[in-house]
Automatic annotation (TrEMBL):
The Histidine kinase domain, residue ranges: 1-148
Keywords from the UniProt entry: ATP-binding, Cell membrane, Kinase, Membrane, Nucleotide-binding, Phosphoprotein, Transferase, Transmembrane, Transmembrane helix, Two-component regulatory system
Keyword DNA damage in record: no
Keyword Metal-binding part of the UniProt annotation: no
Listed GO CC annotations: plasma membrane
Chief site of localization: membrane
Top-level division of the source organism's lineage: Bacteria
Protein name: histidine kinase
Molecular function via GO: ATP binding; phosphorelay sensor kinase activity
UniProt-annotated location(s): Cell membrane
C-alpha cells in the first residue's frame, strides 16, 4: 500500500506547468489515507483525472482533492469548477478516443484516451468510478477502491 496524499503531491508537481498557465490551484485535502494496489497504475489513473480537472476548469478556479475511508473502501473525490459534462454524455466519455463536442475540446488538445485508461485501471482494481456534474458549474469524480 502507499500514501494517497503523497501520490497526489507527485501528481500536482507533474501538472504544475498546466495548472500555472490557467492559474488553477490544486488543493490536496487528503490526510492519513492509504491506497491498495499497483501504485504506477493508480497514479496514472489519478493523474489523468486531475489533468482533466485542470484542463476543463475555468481560469483562476480551484481543483480540490479529498478522500475518506471505512473498513472496506477508500473514496477519492476530485472536484473542479469547470465547463461540466452534459448528462447525456456521461455514458460516452469512457469510450476510447471519445471527446465531447469537438468545438469545445479541439483547442484544448488531447486524444480522448485519458478516461478509457482510467476505467481500465479502476476496473482492474475492482473499483468504481462515478461522475457528477452541472454544466458550466462543476464536475466531481468519485473513485471507490477496495482495501485489501
Ligand atoms: P486525453 O485525456 O487523451 O488527453 P481528453 O481529455 O479529451 O484527451 P478524456 O480524458 O478521455 O479525453 O475525456 C473525454 C472527454 O470527457 C473530454 O474530451 C471532455 O470533453 C470530457 N471531460 C473529461 N473530464 C472532464 C471534466 N473534468 N470536466 C469537463 N469535461 C470533462
Ligand atoms: Mg483527458
Amino acid at each position: 500500500s502507499f500514501d494517497a496524499k503523497d501520490m497526489f503531491e507527485d501528481i500536482i508537481l507533474a501538472l504544475s506547468e498546466n495548472s500555472k498557465v490557467k492559474n488553477v490551484r490544486i488543493k490536496n485535502n487528503i490526510s492519513d489515507i492509504m491506497l491498495f494496489g499497483e501504485k504506477v497504475l493508480l497514479q496514472r489513473a489519478f493523474l489523468n483525472l486531475v489533468q482533466n480537472a485542470v484542463k476543463y476548469n475555468k481560469l483562476n478556479e480551484e481543483v480540490v482533492v479529498t478522500a475518506a475511508q471505512n473498513d472496506d473502501f477508500v473514496t477519492v473525490n476530485i472536484k473542479d469548477n469547470g465547463i461540466g459534462i452534459p448528462e447525456e454524455e456521461l455514458e460516452n466519455i469512457f469510450e476510447p478516443f471519445y471527446r465531447i463536442d469537438a468545438s469545445r475540446s479541439r483547442e484544448l488538445g488531447g486524444s480522448g484516451l485519458g478516461l478509457s485508461i482510467v476505467k481500465t485501471i479502476i476496473e482492474k482494481h475492482k473499483g468504481e468510478i462515478l461522475f457528477e456534474s452541472e454544466i458550466d458549474v462543476f464536475t466531481k469524480v468519485t473513485v471507490i477502491l477496495p482495501k485489501n
